[in-house]
Amino acid sequence: RIYKTAEESEKSQRNMCALQLLMLTCARPKNIRFAKWKEFRLERKVWLTPSKRNDKQADHVIPLSRQALDLLDRIRGLDLQPKGSQYLFPAGDNNVLPDTAFASAMKMMGVGSDTQTAFGMRYSAETIMKHEYEYGAKDGKELHILIQTFMDAVNPDGKPQYPPEILMTQRAELAQWWADKLEGIV
Questions:
Q1: Which of 181, 27, 35, 55 is nearest to 119 (CA)?
Q2: What 3-state class would DSSP assign to 17?
């Protein structure tokens, strides 16, 4: 419901689009806030999040669904200020979307922090994927690895549990399934 409401909302397009991208990619909120256009490889349908912005040591490769690619086109056409910013969602004094943007967008939709948070969306997505995604793995271990790599799982020391390029084809299929799920297609 949150995704569809954000998609249809006319209020604060910057924040609503940021919320949608957060949900489509299952990225960490900080990565959405600081996302730069140069990180996106649209021809390869991936987003490369740099390690210096993460709580880990290596880059994370996020596969982009058809809906995420369409949303990026929409964001480009929003006429966000300042013009020519390197950031997807330029805002405020630091030219970066404030950390309150997601809560603000959800509040505009009548969703309180007692119902859902930006970071909590990652856990909700992971739970739904584990219970509803039908993957052709022989056992649950490979599905678990697939979901963990999609979600950018890290060890307690902050290092990635898996190489960023592992299971890319399967992760792209999962990303598309997840985007279709959010839109109510599956």
A1: 27
A2: helix
